[in-house]
Amino acid sequence: MMQDQETPTTSDNQVATRASGRRWNRIDFVLLILCSVLIAGRCMIFESFPRSRRLGTPPANIDIGVAEVTAMTVFASLIVTLAFLWILFRLTAPTIAWRKTSLTVPLFLLALGSGISYMAASNKHAACIEIWNLLSITILGVLLIQLLNAPWKRRFLLCVLAATGVVMAHRCWEQNSHELTEVEKAFLEDPNQALQAQGIVPGTYGAYQYANRVRSRDIRGYFGVSNSTAAFFILSIMATAALLLERIQKKNLNQDWQFLLAGVLLLLIQIVALWLTQSKGGIVSFLAASGFFAIFWFFRKPFQRHWRNVMIVCVVLTIGAVVAVAAHGMVHDRLPTNSMWVRWQYWKASADMIADHWFTGVGPQNFGTHYLQYMDPAAPEEVKDPHCLPISLWSQWGIFGVMAFVWAVIAIAIRLARPFAKIQTENDVDPRPEPSIPNEPKKLWVYGILISVGIMSLRLAVSDLSGCESAAERNSVLLLSFMIPSAIWLAAFVVLLALTRTTGSAANYSLDMVNSHSGLVSLILGCGLLGFLLHNCIDFGFFRPGVAGICFVCIAVAIASRSNQPPDVCIGNHLKFILIALLIGAAAVYHLWMNMTLPVARSQRYMDQALTHPAQALAWLEKATQQNPLDPEPHSLTCEILILDRKEKKKIDLDTLEKAISALQQAIQRNPAQYGFHDQLSKIYLSYFRLKPEFAKLALDSAQQALARNPNDSKLLIYYAELLTFLAPATGQDHAYEQAAQALQKALDNEKAFSEQQKEMYPEHKEPIYRLEPQKIKQAQTLQKLLQTDRTN
Questions:
Q1: Domain end among 541, 573, 605
Q2: Are strands 95-98 and 569-572 parallel, antiparallel or unpaired?
Q3: Does some domain include residue 293?
Q4: What residues in the chain have per-residue pLDDT under 50?
Q5: What local confidence, expressed as pLDDT, does residue 51 receive?
């Protein structure tokens, strides 16, 4: 009897194992719910780096729900913390069931590239935030693959994604039917006033662009541009289609046809919203994804038998397409259509950038400052991204960034294309333990309520409602912008959940059933990812955190659906591996929260305080610099405040001036590639060179530094020519007039090249399109004639 009490029986071990499995399944489901809140909530806000702050006013928001760097760092920290908690909870488990993700090596390469590119970045503050954004989203994909260990969990997450697509469609409808109608009406009534409200000079190319955006009704959903919204819809539509086709194919799902019809309606709503965006690239990419699915499904049997050959053919065709596009661009110095023409100019400049920084890249989120050095003089606009995912990664993250991309694409493609492993028979022996599949909760819709509340709370936390002038206006905003979208999300989620509800017990989840339905889901999502990748070869939606998050959700569901019941790897009693992972995770979590998230949040709050409390502005900015020493913005604002204070008091205070110059020099040290800081410093030296004669030469030197970083800016070239002409006697610089004439000629040539390109792009446009104000061009021509006359005499 004593022996029986001390030694547990086999039955007791099995009961203990099942109890332990249920505990971990509950923990995993809690983590999945938290991930769902972050995934859906992040798609209902617009995340961006802060726009330039203006003195005397708080930061300008594009819309309610605009999240800047504080929210971006918080989201990254939360994701990494959830991944760390998953590892931490597993420490007490006898084994860790690890599923291969095809993302581990790309994550390592991306981390390696981020470290190298960070050291090369000019603006290390922006680079650090972008690095953690992309790394955290990749970690999210790895975590989700571990959490999605049951078919119902994968369907649950697809319902989250599809319901988010319905809310995005509602937002697009709002913009199309109400907001943009009002904007268009105001513009038609008084174009000049509408342009001035946007800070745009009438008659310039910026005014022409704004008019085109008004006429095209740029539907952007919760994102900054319509192309990013279209990229989101490609994936959300394919996720909804996966739920519907699985419902049609499988008999174990809900047989009530009204739910199927409701699901079809939700799918059509998202397709209509995609059409409203009028994103040609997004619509074509969605059609391509649908075509891929039709081809792969119709020829699925021969493709499965010869999947390696199909992969090789696809790689060859991809390389051939890239070579053909590059050859056409090099021969004609353009690509067909106006949109692709300007993209060719982005890519050509990016190629020169990559040639100079092929190993390190210029640093994440640093493309825009370096692009100006390589920009085509005729190019109509400055951009922050080259509008091509592999080029963007290589130019900013270096060689390891593009290697991570190529590895991930190939590994995921092979994982999804490889036929399912044969189902084991009773004679086969598998040394790996077969974990129990968690039962599907009976009332999953209750968790939908929790997610919808979490989404609304998350959006409220990152939104600024200070612009509401009354309680009634605030309540209406809360109702229309927060409560109604959350209610729509919940309703769509419940309908989709009812559509996918199983009619059998957990015993129905046999291995053959899992493999059978997962193949369809993997195929649909894989084709959606192909369409998404195609779209991001001509756009930059992937670098919107919400869009990238949805991309990794689809990757996770597709890969998790391909896994057999037993995990790919079971790690048991490997304390060294577990401790290393734990230490790395703890270090990452600590660094994110203590060295980035909290300091960045405090710094942003202090800068906002400086703008709203001018009397204590310098004290607030000093606190901001202490909290976040890498950020150049507090130093730039300090300079502006000191100069503004000096002008208002009308006092000649050399000490204050030198403090302002020192603050701007500190900003330059933190982002030396930013030409605007050098331009601003040059104008400060010019304004006060009579106080110190050496300021004249410093004004010229700073202007040269600005011009070296933006050599084709016509406005800057004209300013430099005027500076040379004005300060030549004071500086005694040789050949100043000749250099001024050359700068003016280059500015006029650039504007002529721009005008010629615009005529070729828009031959139907009768009036000339100017990039500079016509008055500025005439001023440059007048100065050029004076210099020519002077040199002749």
A1: 573
A2: antiparallel
A3: no
A4: 1-10, 13, 16, 56-62, 423-434, 504-517, 565
A5: 62
Q: Are 718 and 569 in the same domain?
A: no
By the 8 A CB rule, do 520 and 155 touch? Answer: no
Instruction: Give the residues across from 570 on adjacent strands.
Output: 97
What integer pLDDT is reported at residue 58 of this predicted model?
45
Tokens describing residue 276: 């409203």
- The sign of the dihedral angle between the CA atoms of 427, 430, 433, 436 is negative
Q: What is the 3-state secondary structure (H, E, C) of 341-382?
A: HHHHHHHHHHHHHHHHCCCCCCCCCCHHHHHHHHCCCCCCCC
Burial class (CB in 10 A: 0-12, 13-18, 19+), 378: buried
Nearest to 423 by CA among 510, 329, 517, 535: 510
pLDDT at 513: 42
Residues 57 and 37: their CA atoms lie apart, in Å, by: 33
Is residue 148 one of the residues assigned to a domain? yes
In this predicted model, what pLDDT tens digit does every residue of 226-281 receive, in sequence order?
Answer: 999 999 999 999 999 999 988 887 765 666 778 888 999 999 999 999 999 999 99
CA angle, corner 576, sides to 572 and 582, nearest 5? 95
Confidence (pLDDT) at 562: 77
CA-closest candidate to residue 224, choices 530, 531, 489, 547? 547
Identify whether the C-beta of residue 419 lies closer than 8 Å to the C-beta of residue 386: no
Please state the φ and ψ torsions of residue 46, each to the nearest 5 degrees: -105, 110
Intra-chain end-to-end CA distance of the chain, in Å: 121
Locus of tokens 């955006």: 213
Q: Which of 534, 549, 573 is the last residue of a domain?
A: 573
Cβ-in-10-Å burial (0-12, 13-18, 19+) of 1 comes to: exposed
- With b for 16 or more beta-carbon neighbours within 10 A and e for fewer, the 638-672 pattern comes to bbbbbbebbeeeeeeeeeebebbbebbebbbebbb
Residue 725, both tokens: 């002409």
Which pLDDT score is estimated for 19?
Answer: 54
Q: Answer whether residue 85 is part of any domain.
A: yes
Predicted confidence at residue 434, as pLDDT, reads: 45
pTM (2 d.p.): 0.91
Structure confidence at residue 57 (pLDDT): 45
Backbone angles phi, psi at 43, to 5 degrees: -80, -10
Domains identified in the chain, total number = 2
Report CA 30 to chain centroid distance, whole Å.
Answer: 27
* Rounded distance between C-alpha atoms, residue 561 and residue 521, angstroms: 7
| Strand ranges for 612-708 from DSSP E | none
Place of tokens 């991204």: 385
The tokens describing 621, both together, are: 């900015």
The helix/strand/coil state of 211 is helix
Strand, coil or helix: 770: strand
Domain, as residue range, for 791: 712-793
Q: Does residue 392 form part of some domain?
A: yes
CB–CB of 628/666 below 8 Å? no
Question: Residue 739, Cβ neighbours under 10 Å: how many?
Answer: 18
H or E element at residue 668? helix 654-670
Angle at which helices 444-462 and 484-499 cross, to 10°: 150
